[in-house]
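Late entry, evening session. Most of the bench is empty. Finally got around to the prediction I had been postponing all week. Sequence below, unchanged from the version circulated by S.P.
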Amino acid sequence: MKSIVLIAILLLAASNARTQTQEPTYEQSRKWIVAKLNEAGYTHHEWTTLGTGGEGLRPAYATASLDQISMDECNLRYSEILFDSSTEMTFTSSNTIPLAKVSDVTVKHWVIAKSKFNEEWDEWRITIVAPITQKLVEEKRGVVGQELKNTTPDKTEITFGKSPATDEDSVNRLQKALKHAAALCKDKQKNTDKEPF
C-alpha cells in the first residue's frame, strides 16, 4: 500500500513540474505583447531652421507612438504615429505582420550624440523581419489626410525610447515573446496545412 501511495505522489510531483515549465500559450503571449507594445515610442528634441527665415534655430520635436495594437489570428497589427513639430506633419503607418512568416527578430541599441541640432537620442529598437503590409498616410495640421502609398517592406522597426531605465529589458523580453508567438503560429500553420488523410 505504501508503494502505491509513493508512486501516486511521484506521479503528481512530475505532473506539477511539467505544468510549471509549460511554455506560455498564444493567448498569454498575445496579451503580454499587446500590453508591452503600448510602452513603445519616443520623443526627439531638436532644433530646426525651418520657419525662422534662416536667421537662427528654433526648438522642435518629433514624437512617435503606437496605436490600434492587436494580435489576433497570428497577425500583429498596429499603427505607428509620428508627429514632427517643425513641419506640423503627422505620418501614420498601419502595419500588418503575419507572425507565421517572421524569419527573424533582432534588437539593437541606437544612440545619437547631442549636437547643436539635437539632444542625445538613446533608444532600443526591435526589428521584425517578415513580409509586412503597410499603408502610409500623411496629414498637415488642419488639412485632410492624404494617403501616400501602400507598401510591402520586408522588415519593420519598433522603437522604445520613453523609459531609459527599462527600455533595454522591455525590448529583450519582447524579442523573446515575439519569437515564441511566431513559433506557435508556424506550428499552427503546419498543422492546418496538413492533409487530413
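Two things to note before I forget:
The mean pLDDT is 86.
The two ends are 46 Å apart (CA to CA).
Will write this up properly tomorrow.
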